[in-house]
């Protein structure tokens, strides 16, 4: 994990590495976006994934000539602070970016809890925010006018697993009401919204909820949950605890030799479960906001596959490009599009442009509803098969059939 000093040093180095050579010749002005982002704490891994996506977009847009507004050339630049994965700290830092650093345009932090904390701040100062890392549905029900979120909302994340279980039961000649579901969630806005979506889908099929637990705050030990799973033998197991919760669950699933035929887990890629727990992770079904096989493209980043190839070239450590990285890039692209259409750096005019966004991207289409959400965005489900993430749902984009029951290879 990065401490604050190392974070600052990393960002300073990144700024140099990503500065386009053409900037000197064109003498473009800086157009600053602000971001409180987790370099330390429980969200540090995805904070870094987000930063990689932000910086990749900045470089690409600047290298393509930047943004022309009123006959002037502007290059995007991001000013970061480490929010330490703490909501209160994120709110303080966003206020500092606005009040002291005079930043007029914001990118989101990683995660729904931190985004929830900063929304009253950007609303207070009437500073527009484009965020691609917070999916909690509750963020879009409070009447905020300055938040624009490009992601599919969190209640959609694990409901497809319930649909899969219902279809499998019918195929086996059973009533879906016979299906037993066990679930555990982190106690945060995102995961609780994931749970609510699942609860509603379970009611639709009259399934049985045999375990409904919350993870401890430190996310270090869920043995009590797996003791119950072993005793009750559910048909479906669902886990939502961001990267740390997913890693803890995978490790302890191996310790308990958990043999549940259908398992859905959020944040599989960020938790690195394929590399760290290859045998245990086999057969997990993982939701994603983006996949390189998607039929989505744009003039700046090309197709989803081309973006994937370019990101892996820039970051060879990515065997699988996290969807958090892709959506971070897309969020910066939305900003660039809004600035070009607004032809202004007045926050109100840029906000008005954001409300009219209708932008095809390599990540999928972005068109904001009145509440600032992007309702057209859907969740894609991938299953880990042979150590690879293969799309199994929806059917029209699937590249492989669901393997069921999961082979518990301990």
Please outline the helices and strands.
Layout lengths: L3 H14 L4 H5 L2 E9 L6 H20 L3 E3 L2 E11 L4 H13 L6 E2 L4 H14 L3 E3 L15 E3 L9 H13 L8 E6 L3 H17 L2 E7 L8 H10 L3 E5 L1 H15 L5 E4 L7 H4 L1 H4 L3 E4 L8 E2 L3 E2 H11 L8 H20 L4 H9 L2 E2 L6 E2 L12 E6 L2 E6 L17
Parallel strand pairs: 1-3, 4-5, 5-6, 7-8, 7-9, 9-10
Antiparallel strand pairs: 2-3, 11-16, 12-13, 14-15, 16-17
Descriptive overview:
It is a single chain. The protein is of the alpha/beta class and 410 residues long. The protein folds into two domains: 4-152 and 292-367, Response regulator (Rossmann fold); 156-288 and 380-397, 3-Layer(aba) Sandwich (Rossmann fold), CATH 3.40.50. It is 41% helix and 19% strand. The chain has 14 helices and 17 strands. It has a four-stranded parallel sheet, sandwiched between helices. The protein has a three-stranded mixed sheet with strand order 1-3-2, sandwiched between helices. Strand 4 (106-107), helix 5 (112-125) and strand 5 (129-131) form a beta-alpha-beta unit. Helix 4 runs parallel beside helix 5 and helix 6 packs parallel to helix 7. The model is unreliable at 1-6 and 8-25 (pLDDT under 50).
Q: Would you identify the CATH H-level superfamily of the largest domain?
A: Response regulator
Structure class: alpha/beta
SS summary, helix count: 14
Radius of gyration: 21 Å
Extract low-pLDDT stretches: 1-6, 8-25
Distance between the termini: 30 Å
Give the number of DSSP strands.
Answer: 17
Mean pLDDT, rounded to whole units?
Answer: 92
CATH topology of the largest domain: Rossmann fold
Strand order of the largest sheet: 8-7-9-10
- What is the CATH architecture assignment of the largest domain? 3-Layer(aba) Sandwich
What is the CATH class designation of the largest domain? Alpha Beta
Kindly estimate the percentage of residues that lie in beta strands according to DSSP: 15-25%
Based on Cα principal axes, name the global outline: globular
* Helical content (DSSP H or I, runs of 4+): 40-55%
Largest sheet: 4 strands, parallel
Number of domains: 2
């Amino acid at each position: 994990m990065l401490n604050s000093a190392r974070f600052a040093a990393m960002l300073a180095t990144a700024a140099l590495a990503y500065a386009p050579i053409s900037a000197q010749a064109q003498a473009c002005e800086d157009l600053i976006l602000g971001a409180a982002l987790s370099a330390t704490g429980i969200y540090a891994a995805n904070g870094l994934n987000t930063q990689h996506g932000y910086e990749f977009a900045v470089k690409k847009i600047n290298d393509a000539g930047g943004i022309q507004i009123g006959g002037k050339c502007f290059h995007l630049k991001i000013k970061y602070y480490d929010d330490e994965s703490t909501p209160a700290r994120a709110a303080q830092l966003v206020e500092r970016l606005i009040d002291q650093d005079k930043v007029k345009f914001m990118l989101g932090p990683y995660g729904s809890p931190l985004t929830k904390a900063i929304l009253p701040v950007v609303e207070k100062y009437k500073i527009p925010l484009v965020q691609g890392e917070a999916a909690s549905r509750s963020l879009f029900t409070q009447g905020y006018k300055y938040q624009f979120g490009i992601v599919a909302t969190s209640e959609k994340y694990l409901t497809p697993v319930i649909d899969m279980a219902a279809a499998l039961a019918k195929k086996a000649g059973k009533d879906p009401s016979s299906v037993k579901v066990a679930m555990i969630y982190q106690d945060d806005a995102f995961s609780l919204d994931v749970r609510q979506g699942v609860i509603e889908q379970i009611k639709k099929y009259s399934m049985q909820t045999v375990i409904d637990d919350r993870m401890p705050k430190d996310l270090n030990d869920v043995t009590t949950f797996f003791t119950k799973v072993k005793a009750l033998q559910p048909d479906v197991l669902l886990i939502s605890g961001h990267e740390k919760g997913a890693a803890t669950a995978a490790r302890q699933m191996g310790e308990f030799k958990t043999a549940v035929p259908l398992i859905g887990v959020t944040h599989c890629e960020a938790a690195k479960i394929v590399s760290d727990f290859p045998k245990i992770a086999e057969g997990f079904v993982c939701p994603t906001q983006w996949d390189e096989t998607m039929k989505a493209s744009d003039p700046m980043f090309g197709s989803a596959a081309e973006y994937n190839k370019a990101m892996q070239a820039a970051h060879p450590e990515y065997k699988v490009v996290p969807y958090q990285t892709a959506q971070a890039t897309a969020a910066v692209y939305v900003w660039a599009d809004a600035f070009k259409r607004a032809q202004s750096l007045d926050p109100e005019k840029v906000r008005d442009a954001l409300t009219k966004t209708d932008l095809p991207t390599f990540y999928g289409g972005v068109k904001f509803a009145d509440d600032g959400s992007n309702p057209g965005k859907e969740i894609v489900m991938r299953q880990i098969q042979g150590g690879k993430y293969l799309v199994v749902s929806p059917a029209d984009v699937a590249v492989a059939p669901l393997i069921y029951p999961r082979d518990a290879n301990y």
